[in-house]
Automatic annotation (TrEMBL), chain A:
GO CC field: membrane
Record keyword Transmembrane present: yes
Membrane topology: Multi-pass membrane protein
Location of the protein in the cell: Membrane
Name of protein: SLC41A/MgtE integral membrane domain-containing protein
Membrane-spanning intervals of the chain: 20-40, 92-116, 128-158, 178-197
Organism: Candidatus Methanogaster sp. ANME-2c ERB4
Keywords annotated in UniProt: Ion transport, Magnesium, Membrane, Transmembrane, Transmembrane helix, Transport
Domain SLC41A/MgtE integral membrane: 56-186
TrEMBL record, chain B:
Single GO term (MF): monoatomic cation transmembrane transporter activity
Organism the protein comes from: Candidatus Methanogaster sp. ANME-2c ERB4
Ranges of residues in domain SLC41A/MgtE integral membrane: 48-176
Membrane disposition: Multi-pass membrane protein
GO cellular component: membrane
Name listed for the protein in its UniProt record: SLC41A/MgtE integral membrane domain-containing protein
Compartments where located: Membrane
């Protein structure tokens, strides 16, 4: 079967794998640098809120996992013909509501875990209430923004004859870290601001 | 009855997310432990998020491609050409990304007014990137083969675990590289 062999040669050649994956990976890397820039801008907040740094990789990781599974489920749903309109569509509502509920529950868990681990290791923590508030605000708000982006990209791509599976997850991966880090930044600023008012 | 339900999505999501949460909180503790070093050398704070992303992404590409190869029955012994070419390709992607990353971080540092010598930054990025990829790729191959042998779908298991492991290894690798270079 010469055609099959041709396909396999291409499928397994180093050149074709690098050619397909490298451009996207470079865009993602630059997106990550923007997340890093926001993290540097947070240095004051990191010093003022002990335990904030513990939360950062966990919130980014949770956001990536939940958003990318949402993107890939929406892609499957639209291929199955389950999403034909945006308004009052139970599949769409359940997918977005499910991913936001997961974000809420996991944010509370992350805040509590971050506090307990930090105290158990004998390091200073700002307290469970502040860490849970930051995690919930950053986790749920970034989840909401990314869910809207996921729905818009999935439906927009499908209407223009582009496979959403090829577009939605990469776009969410690139935007996800930047938006999530921005929301952590806002949450930290808000906590500091409220603190100053109450103190 | 809807095909996707809120409870169904939660039941499938929570176990994997909990395991990933515990691993990434551990990664956060490493950052917290090195907080003084990070505040003294803020350029490391710019470097860490994209570096752990490169490790997680290249590991995920490798994991997803190995999973597909398993499903297609293309994986003979471990030393087969399919496995080898995938590893080489992911090393090339990771290597090029690290070089581009060092330039981007250097430019960002200059824009933010953080002084840094480019040669040092390139060395830190390359050393950390090599450690990260060596460990993450070994873990990816191990997890892919083990989950396949035990009848689990590698697609479900490999990627969430690899991104979380990539966080821990990447943060440690940056600290080790900074310690070696400075």
């Amino acid at each position: 079967m010469p055609e099959r062999d041709d396909y396999l040669d291409r499928y397994t050649s180093v050149k074709s794998i690098v050619g397909e994956a490298l451009p996207f990976e470079l865009v993602c890397t630059i997106g990550g640098v923007f997340a890093g820039i926001i993290l540097v801008k947070m240095i004051d907040a990191i010093e003022m809120i002990p335990g904030l740094l513990v939360l950062v990789p966990a919130i980014l990781g949770m956001r990536g996992n939940i958003s990318c599974t949402l993107g890939s489920r929406l892609g499957s749903a639209i291929h199955l013909g389950l999403i034909s309109r945006i308004e009052r569509n139970p599949e769409l509502i359940n997918n977005v509501a499910g991913s936001l509920t997961l974000s809420l529950i996991m944010s509370v868990v992350l805040g509590i875990l971050a506090h307990l681990f930090t105290v158990a290791l004998g390091m200073q923590s700002v307290g469970v209430v502040v860490l849970v508030s930051i995690a919930v605000f950053a986790g749920v708000s970034s989840g909401l923004i990314l869910a809207v982006i996921a729905v818009v990209i999935t439906i927009g791509a499908f209407r223009h004859g582009i496979d959403p599976d090829n577009v939605t997850t990469p776009a969410l991966g690139t935007l996800g870290d930047v938006i999530t880090m921005l929301m952590v930044f806002c949450a930290a600023k808000a906590v500091i601001w409220i603190w100053h008012i109450t103190l | 009855m809807a095909y996707y339900t809120v409870t169904g999505i939660m039941k499938r999501g929570i176990p994997v997310l909990l395991v990933a949460a515990i691993i990434s909180i551990t990664a956060g503790q490493l950052l917290h432990a090195g907080q003084d070093l990070l505040i003294a050398f803020p350029v490391l704070l710019i470097l860490i998020p994209p570096l752990i992303k490169v490790g997680g992404d290249t590991g995920s590409i490798l994991g997803a491609r190995l999973s597909s190869a398993f499903h297609l029955g293309l994986v003979e012994p471990v030393g087969g050409v399919v496995v080898r070419n995938n590893i080489i390709a992911c090393l090339v992607i990771g290597g090029v990304s690290c070089v581009v990353l060092s330039v981007a971080v250097w430019a960002a540092a200059i824009l933010l007014g953080i002084g840094v010598v480019y040669g040092l930054l390139l060395k830190i990025t390359l050393i950390a990137g090599c450690i990260e990829m060596a460990v993450v790729f070994a873990a990816t191959i191990g997890i892919a083969f083990v989950s396949h042998r035990h009848g689990l779908d590698p697609d479900d298991v490999v990627i969430p675990l690899i991104t979380a492991i990539g966080d821990i290894v990447g943060i440690m690798a940056v600290f080790v590289a900074a310690w070696v270079v400075v």
